[in-house]
Amino acid sequence: MKDTPRIRGTTPEIEAAARRLRCNLTPAEAYLWEALRGKKLKGLKFRCQHPVGRFILDFYCPSCKLAIEIDGSSHDTKQEYDQVRTEKLAQYGYRVLRFTNEEVMTDLSRVLAEIEKVAFTP
């Protein structure tokens, strides 16, 4: 059994927000989701707009506790919040990868290679 603590459950409001986000993916999120869904990346199962505690992760792979965040222009002013959030998730044993919209849209193969590399690294 792992000795890392668990983030407590989500609220109904966060779960509803995650459902809304799943229906309104950004172009970069939709592009990456198409490449990840259905275990297309080396058999890894990913979830889209997945609530974890009070956070909603853009993508999450439960088998390796890997969160993937796509940072768009709305994230430009939220760097401090993103850092705190990443640190909080790390305290609970989650690994977080961040990519920009531009990286996903212009170099998807490199993004997928980085995800695969981290996912299979203990």
UniProtKB/TrEMBL annotation:
Top-level taxonomic group: Bacteria
A Pfam family matched in the record: DUF559
InterPro entries, per database record: DUF559, Endonuclease_DUF559_bact, Restrct_endonuc-II-like
Domain DUF559: 15-117
Matching PANTHER family: BLL0828 PROTEIN
Protein name: DUF559 domain-containing protein
Source organism of this protein record: Rippkaea orientalis (strain PCC 8801 / RF-1)
